[in-house]
Specification:
By secondary structure, the chain is of the alpha+beta class. It has 4 helices and 4 strands, in the order αββββααα. The protein is globular, with a radius of gyration of 28 Å. The two termini are 55 Å apart. This is HSH2D isoform 5. InterPro entries: SH2, SH2_dom_sf.
Length: 173
């Protein structure tokens, strides 16, 4: 459920179907990981006994990975896969066995998996200083209670003000 209490929008079926088509002829436990289009992170798809299963792999702010509902956090996608080749994925208690290769080796898209996670990991490793540290705190000056609006302030008219935008030509011309 979303925060509004509504079910989340389903993934475009094509994405799951592509994964399932790739896994269809593979042995049990074969898996693939793809960039998710529904959340920040990835989707782990694997061939189970009776169907293909799809799990979110969340990319956390510190650059680590986890499958929601599990307590273990992994330092990399490789670490997550290695873990589940030795410990079963819940709730079906099945192990990942071998990666499923893409059908067209000349057109692989593994780069997407690593570019995004590397960028997040670099950002987590080199945090930007907090705004309070980067600039001094503003100082509020005490204004006298006798301050009154001045009717004689120098004001310029709209026509006198200059604009950094070029003037627009009328539509009729």
């Amino acid at each position: 459920m979303t925060e509004a209490g509504k079910p989340p929008l389903p993934l475009p079926p094509r994405l799951d179907w592509d994964a399932e088509n790739l896994l269809e002829s593979q042995p049990l436990g074969s898996f693939l990981i793809r960039v998710s289009h529904s959340h920040v992170g990835y989707t782990l798809s694997y061939k189970a006994q009776s169907s293909c299963c799809h799990f979110m792999v969340k990319l956390l702010d510190d650059g680590t990975f986890m499958i929601p509902g599990e307590k273990v956090v992994h330092t990399s996608l490789d670490a997550l896969v290695t873990f589940h080749q030795q410990k079963p994925i819940e709730p079906r208690r099945e192990l990942l066995t071998q990666p499923c290769r893409q059908k067209d080796p000349a057109n692989v898209d593994y780069e997407d998996l690593f570019l995004y996670s590397n960028a997040v990991a670099e950002e987590a490793a080199c945090p930007v200083s907090a705004p309070e540290e980067a600039s001094p705190k503003p100082v509020l000056r005490h204004q006298s209670k006798e301050r009154k609006p001045s009717a004689e302030m120098n004001r310029i008219t709209t026509k006198e003000a200059t604009s950094s935008c070029p003037q627009k030509a009328p539509l009729g011309e």
